[in-house]
Structure formats: structure tokens, C-alpha cells
Amino acid sequence: MTSLGQLPLDSDTASSLLPETVMLVGLIAIVLIPNLGDAKFRIPLTSVRVPVLLGGSRFNMTNDPRMPNRISNITFLVAFLSSLVLISESPREVGGVLMADGFSRIFSTMFLGALLLVSVATTHRIPAKTKAPIPEDSDSKATVDRKISVLIDNRRQVDFYILLIMVGLGMSMMTMATNLFMMIVCIELASLSTYVLVAFHKESPSGGEAGAKYFIVGSVASAIGIYGMSLLYLWSGSLDLDVLRESWQAMDGVDPFAAFGIGMMLVAFGFKVSAAPFHLAAPDAYSGAASPISGLLATASKAMGFVALFRVLVIITVPEGAEALWMVALGIFAVVTMTWGNLAALTSENPKRMLAYSSVAHAGYMLAAFAVVGSGISSTEESVVILTAVTFHLAVLVLFKLGAFLVITHLETEGKGHNIEHLHGLGNRDPMIAGSMFLFVLSLAGVPPLSGFLSKLLMINGIVSTSASTGSSDTSDIATWAESVDPLFWLAAAIVLNSALSLFYYLRIGLVMFFEEPASTKPLKAAPSLRMAIFACAILTLLCGVGPVSEWLLDLVNGAIDSFMHQV
Amino acid sequence: MISDPLTVITLIPILVSLVLLIVPKITSSAEGLARASRAISMGVSLGMLAITTMIFFGEIGNVDWSNYNSGYYLTNDPVALIPSIGVYWKVGADALSFPMIWLTTLLIPISMLVEWDAKKGHLFHPLILMMEGALIGVFVSLDMFVFYAFWELTLVPMFFLIMIWGGEDRKYASMKFFIYTFTASVIMLIGILVMYLYTPDVASSGSITGHSFDMSVMVSSTEFIPSEGLRHLVWLLLLIGFATKMPSVPVHTWLPDAHVQAPTAGSMLLAGVMLKMGAYGFLRIAVAAFPESTVAFIPLLIFLGMASLVYGAWVCMGQTNLKRMVAYSSVSHMGLIFLGIATMQPLGIAGALFMMFAHGIISPLLFAVAGAFKHHYHTLEIGSMRGIAHHSPWLSAHMMLGWMASLGLPLLAGFVAEVTILIAFWMSFGWLVLLPTLTLIITAVYYLTSMQRTIFESNDPHHGILPDTLHGEEPRDITWHENAGMIILGALTILFGILPFIFWDMMSEWSSGFLLETLVQAMQSEGVKP
After folding, report:
1. CB-CB under 8 Å, B226 with A471
2. What is the torsion angle, in degrees rounded to the nearest 10, for the CA atoms of residue A296, residue A302, residue A303 and residue A305?
3. Rounded to whole angstroms, how far apart are CA atoms A325 and A342?
4. What is the pLDDT of residues B205-226, one digit of tens each?
5. Nearest CA in chain B to A500
6. What span, in angstroms and rounded, lies between the C-alpha atoms of A215 and A200?
7. Which of A76, A79, A424, B2 could be A116's S-S partner, Cβ–Cβ 3.0 to 4.6 Å?
8. What is the pLDDT of residue A96?
9. A113 near A190, Cβ under 8 Å?
């Protein structure tokens, strides 16, 4: 392994790490720019004064409280676009621990897109006000509180966006890691930042509670994962994924070190993707955090867990043509996860909790697809289709899951959104936003021709075409066929039944938006860039479901997964 | 003249309606725009009617419908939508779909005309135009994915029509309508997905799943579904979807509520075309793909058809609400379609097709009449007004014609359909035919009583008894635009009653071809006599 000191920083390498470089520059800029001032340094013995820019009184323009938000928006936009361009570049290895290829760039584009939306949405969720008067003695207590909260919000703008860029940096590095140590470090960089972001509104009771719960459960899960990683190191002497794969293939029988190591890492990743039974912190975290952050957890953070699963499960442990060790366990967890998520979502009265549980259910669908890849009866082509479906689902989830959270964000700008009653009559108050929300929940439910249907169809198709041919075909009796078919088929049936079940709570959102009377008929607060983000999500949800855009995205994902599976 | 007319008549109305719905949001000048969008909607729908009429006469597409062969006409070069999963834009029409397409383009301008003065006209008429595109899309698409997308799209404008312009209970009705039909179509979707997953490998065409949504491929490859039990199951799933749309007892309960609350134009389209989507899909997909299952489940079809027929008629007798009565009579007539299909005779299936068409022009007339009552008398209670022939002679005349057509008076369109279905039923099931025939007497009873009590039966030879809802005001006769719409529908009822062969010939050609190609073999293997 090349040590980091010898990192070859030629121009090709630099260009293949462009998004990360952009974020690094953004991180430095977001610290420096608001602090620029008019301090001057007088060269000794002369009267020449050279501006040093740091210190003195700050410039009005750069000291604007809205500045961090703008820098973060631009950073994420540039990083997102450069990552998008890099998808079709040829693979490049950097420093022995990173591998920038189509697969990693698909995911980093996904993460950066999500972060861009979050960053744009936060403009209105944690607003920065240029006029922030200082409380006076004559003010009433309520006025003082309001003024102080404006001042605090202004003060902590920069904190929020620094953390957000750190999340982006961790996540996009994580997608490229080919070494378990590097991967865990990047995941921790992203996770630690999200713990703070969840607890960002620490003054509100639910914010503090959510942050604490998420942090404790998350760090325990991470600790277990790192312990599992150390077991793997003990067993093979390396943390390089290729070496681990070779050792696994050469393994005679099942080595307990290896099995426990992988199992413990699954716990850590299971927490990240919020799979049952490691999902219990998720609903509290989602409902306590600001909605854009909840959306981030439900899309990018979950996808990060799936990248780890891709790397660890598919690269290391899938044997050629035989059943993987974890297949049965993962299949059972998948069914439990999706059913638990949907049943819990049915009874939720808080739309954020409901979306959290629906996110748990979606994790279940995708884990079911993973179980089929590990079953050993799927050919490489079938595995490619299934994993394409999972990746495509994670990509479009950014559009409609995050989109739904952005609609809740819109309600949060007026202090609501934590009870389904706040959605009542949204159709009267703002038909466009309500229509977008309806589109998002329909897509979550998987109604054609929206993008949620396309990915679910690909998943079900992959599972069924792998398993259904195993059933006996010469019988006219459905019961005999049902007994003879491979149990994997029932994973597809479970996905279909769960999707049908999920329709009830998704449609309920639509019904309350259009049928219930709103508490006030006032239109929503103006939030132009948030609205723009919501509409962009809604239009893309539709376009990624049918037509040339969906085809383009599917081709992109399919190509990346294809090369990923063939390099294994 | 137009290279791909079916794509044009599907997409133009949807695009125009989207523009008309969005532009007022931007310009926000109300009154003039409402008139303009109403005129544009009407113009576009008339254009569509002109195109379909020219298709019928062979001016566009050079189709000779009088010499109908099996297969699709006016097909296009498939346009790739999502080739990765085998979705293409593929359209075509045959004798099953073309009368429905023409009917749709006919009913849209008429329903716009009847509600020419609707409130919020800048939304109302564009929504009806969107309905046109969605309905035609259902009938022309030869790709199951696109078919399903249009199937769901029809819900959207109808939902808003009921929700915004409906009566007092519109919320309940539109919610019930949406939940019923949406749930049913999700169940249907499961069936479609199973069919999709068993289409033969077409990976060479760029489909990464190896399957195709092409309707003819899906329909013809059901033998790959491994067990007969699963085929039966899929057939039942499809039946639930289609029967709910038709609607058939016991999943019909959304229909009376939706009809009673819907605005007149909504009711006309709902009864005229939307219900036929169920019968169309049933024939096009369920019967064509699973002939064995259809033959095996003939008793179920007869039961459903008979139950709808008898129950619908029976409930009609007790109805005091004019519109609810007409709605239940639709349930009753849709039962006849199932009976016609269940006969497995070319005559019966052709009769069912003609029933779809005839009911498609008669029931809009009935709902236009009922809507006019609501509009001018502010009530739909049958007993509350008598002898209105004195006050609204035109309305009474239309009511009489519509009611007579619906109860099956000879020389009117409904008679042709009913009598052919009954003949076919007799040929297949012998004396069992007495049951539907006697039910038609019930139909006559409720129509005649309601008509007699409403139009006639006033003790005063010069004056009727007016309902309280008028508060003593003198009712006006129907407006010119209502009258014009009803006259066109009435004239067509008479026209197709006297000259049914305009569409009958191609329908009966299609039915015998369909029977020979798909059903005969299944009937022989199941031991049912053709």
C-alpha cells in the first residue's frame, strides 16, 4: 500500500477527485470569507499599508449572515455537477485506498444532489436575517426571545454549513474507499457530522432528545462495526477489500473470526440503512431533526449504508454460484424490516415519523434484493439487474423522499409539520405544493408511471426471474407450485403485499391534504428557493419514471453496476 | 394526411389542457381567459371529432372499416419510452376500440356543450379535454405500461370534476370514487406484473429485465405462466380491476354516489365512456390473455352479470332520486355486457360490444336530462314534481326518448344490443334466458313509472305540480346548449337504432375473429360447446 505521504498528485488524479477538492475549498472558504476584514499591516519603517484581510472590522458584504448558505449552495452545485461529469470517466485508483470509478461517482452524485437540495432548503428552515436588532430592556419577554432566536440563527449559520460540507466530504470519499479502514473513517466523518446536525436545534426538547438518541445508538453501532472490522483484520491480516475477498474465497469452511466480523459490520451498516431491529432510533431522530436533515438521513445516509453493504457483502462474501452465509438471515431481516416499517407507519400521526417508518420499509425492500444476490442462484446478469434496481431506487429516493421532507420543511417554516393535522387542507392553501406532495407519496408507494414504480418493478422482476423458474411447471395446482418454488419468490410477494399495505398511509396523506378543512386558509409563507427545490423534485420524479430521462439514468446506473460486478 | 392520427388525438388534448390549466396561473386575468379557454377546448375537441370521423370514413389512414379484418389499424412505429424495461409508445385501433374512440371524441364536445356555462370555466373545460386524452389513451395504447398510466390518469380529471363541481356530498363521493377505483386498479396492476414477469426473453431489444410490456406479447405469452392455478389467479386479479370499473355487483357501490354528486358533464363521461373502459380492458386483456380461465369461470361471469342486472333493476324500482335511478340502471345494463361475453357466441360478444356503444350514447342522454332537472328544478326527487310536460316540453321530450331508448324500445339503439345478447344467451343457455328477459320487464316498470310520475300525471290539464325547491317560481325550459346536446344524442340514438350496421358489421366481424382465434380452442379443451 502506498503511504499517504507519497500520494501522487498529478493533474489526472486531481481532476478525478474534483468534487472532493471543491468541497475542501468550500470548507476553507466558508471559514475564511465571513471573517474577512479591513485590517492592514504597515511594513515597518515605511508608511505603506498592506491589507491582510483578516482582522479589523469585517466587510459588510462578506459578513452578511446569508453568506455561508450561498457558499454552501455554490460548493454543492459545483461538486454535484463535477461529480456528474465524472461518472463516465475511466476508473482511477488513488493512493491505494481510493478507487474513483463509475460506481462511486453514481453514489457521490446522489449524495451531493441530496446535499444541494438540503442546503437550498435550509435557506428557509434556518433563516438568516440581515436585520437582527439587539433586544432592549423595554422589550417584552416574547420579543426578547424572538430577537435572541434570530441572533442565534444568524450566529450559527456557518456551523450548520460547515457540518453539511463535512457530511458531503465524508460521504463522497466513502463511496471510493476500497479499504475497510478508510471506509470506516469516512463513514464516521459523515456520521459524526450528522449527529450534530440532528441535534442542531438543541434548545428545542425534541431536538436534544433526537440528537442524544441518535448519537448513542449510532456510536454503539459504529463501535460494534469497528470491533467486527478488527476481527476481520485478525483473521486475514489486511483490511484491503481485494485481499479480504481472496481470503474469503480461499477459506475452508467458515472461520468464526470472519463470520463474526462480517456479522458485526452488518450491525453497523444495518443501523445506517435503518433496518429492523436496528432502526429504533430512526423515527425519533427523524422527527426531532429539522426536516431537511431528516430527509438527508433518509436518503443520502441510508444510501451510504448501502454502499458499505455493496462493498462488504457483494465484494467480499458472495461466492461464485453458491449461497452466501448471510443470505437467509438477510432475507428474514428484510421481510421483518419492511413489514415492521409499514405497520408502524400505518399508526403514525406525525408525518415525519411516518416518512421515517416508510424509509425503514424501503430499506426492507432493498435488503430483500440483496438477499437474492447472495442466494447463489442468480446469474451475474440477474444480479446486475437487481443491484441496478437498488441503486436506481436509492437515486430516485433522493427526489421523492427528500421532496416529501422538503414539503414538511415548508410547513416547518411556520412552526408546524409534526402532526398530520398540519397537512389538512394543504390542497386549498397551496395546490401546487400539495400536488407535489401527492406525487411524492404516490411515487413512494410505487404507482406507475412515477419513478418509484420503475425501481420497484426492476427489483421484483429481478427477484422473480431468479426464483420463479425453480417452481415445478408441470402441475395444474397452484398449491404444489407454491410449495416447490424457491423461498426467495416469497420475498417478491412480500414486497408486493407490503407495497399494497403502504398505500393506505400514503393515500391518507393525499386524502387529508385534499379533503380536510385547514385550520387557517392563509397561504404558506413565501419561500421561493425551497419551492423551486420542491418543484424540481416533483418534475424529476415524473421524468425519471417514464421517458428519455429515466432511460438515461437507468443506463448510467446499469453501466456502473455492470462494471462494478465484473471487476469483482 | 396525418401520419399518426391516434397519437395526435391522444396527446393533443392533454397538451392543450395542460397549457390551458397552467396559463391562467401565470397571467391571472380571469373572465376573458375563461371564455377563451372554453372556446379553445371546444375547438380542439371538435377537431378531434373531425379526425376520428374522417378515420371512420377512410379519409385519414385509408382504413376500410366496412371490410374489417382482424389485427390493428393505424399502428405507428413504436417510440422508445423506457426500453430498459420494454416500454414503448405503441398505438393502434381495431373494431373493439374504434367505436369507443369515436364515442369519446363525440361525447367530449357534447358534454362541454351541455355545461357550456359551468362555473370556473377556465378549469372545467380544460379538465374535460384532459379527460378526452386520457380516455383515448386507454383505448389506443398497445403497451400495457402506457395503458395502465392512462387508466390511472383518467382518475385525475374525474376526481377534480366531482370534487370541485359536485353536489353537497362531493367530498365523500370523490373520495369513495378514488379509493374504490384506485384500489381496484392496484390489484389489477399485480396481475399485469405477473403477466409481465412471464413474457419471453426480449433482452436483444435492449430490455435489461428481459421482459416487455408490449400488449400483444404479454397477451400471447401467458402459456409461460407455470401453473393453471396462477393463471386463474391472475385472471381473477384482472377481473377485480375491470369489474370495479364497469362496475359489477358487488363492487359497484362507488358508482351511484359518484354519479349523484358529479356535475352533468362528469356523469355523462363517467357513464358514457369510463365504465366501458372496464368492459374494454376485460375483453382486450383478461379474455384475450386467459381464454381457458374465462371459459372455466363462465358460471362466475353469468352470476356477476345476472346479479348486476337483477340487483340494479330491483334497486331502481325503489329509487326516488332520478340520478341515482339512472346510475343503478347503468349497473344493470353493464350486467348485460358480462352476460353477452359469457355466451361465448359471436352474436353475444358483438351484442356486448354494441351494448358498450349504445349505452355510451343513451346514458349520457339520461344524465343530461337528470342534470337539467337538477339545474332547472333544483331537485331530483321523482315524486316532488308532476306534469312538467306543461312547463318544460323540450326536457320532457328528451326524457321520454332517453327513457324509451334505455328500456329497449325497438328502433332505438339499446334494443339492438339487448335483443342480440338475449338471442345469443338463448342459443347458449336455453331457457335460462327467461331470467334476464323478465328483468327487462322490471326495467320497463321503473322507467315507465318514473316518467309517468314526472312528465304526466297532473290533475290540472294546463298546469303541473312544481317542487317546493322552486319556491313558487316558474321553471324555464332547458337552455339552448343543453337542448342542442340532447338533440344530438337523441338523434344518434335513433340513427343507430335504425341503422345499427354502421358499427355492427365491424363489431360482429371482430367478435367472430376473436372467438375463432382465442376462445374456440379453450372451449374445446374445457369441454364447453361453442
Report:
1. yes
2. 140
3. 28
4. 677 777 888 888 888 887 777 7
5. B186
6. 12
7. A76
8. 80
9. no
